[in-house]
Amino acid sequence: MPEPSQDFEQLLQPVLAKLSLRLTSGQASILSKHYALLQRWNRRVNLTSIRSPQEIVERHFGESLYLAKVIGKAKSLVDVGSGAGFPGLPFAVARPDVEVTLVESVSKKATFLKEVSRPLGNVSVHEGRLEDLQECFEWATMRAVAVPDLLPHLLRISTRLALLVSREEVARLEPDVRVVWQENVSVPWSERRVILIGKASSGA
Description:
With 204 residues, the chain is an alpha/beta fold.
């Protein structure tokens, strides 16, 4: 049976090819360790309900790396409800030029994030709720979180949003004077998932 790192490397290559993305051996190694730790911790902490290695690599790592391509020049990004580290950790690996903060209120998940982010000098972990965060960031991102409920808090700490959501979730979003939704970018490997880009309106 192949080691988790070997399995990951084989699955990652077609993902990188599809994204036309090149990583250094050091970056690939950090992602591989993230994958191995995720597999180990998931048996007791339930970091993700996805169990298929291919789906983990495509859905979690692939989407996160794609976000790193979609977001252009940036200085800082906050990943809200980071959980197993997606999309924030792979984003930080691919974009060492961006300071990334991972926000996670569940203590065990925050501990996992601190462990897996140790090799990264551009990552910090905020163990607590978004509502308690006082810093401001250029971009805010999140996935699998209730957008309408958290929108006021997101716009308090950031003027630009990049949300990994389904097309159904986009359709359910009601018009809001506080934010202008600019576009949604289709995610590779999925007809349902998109990256929804938004910007705080001038009157927000």
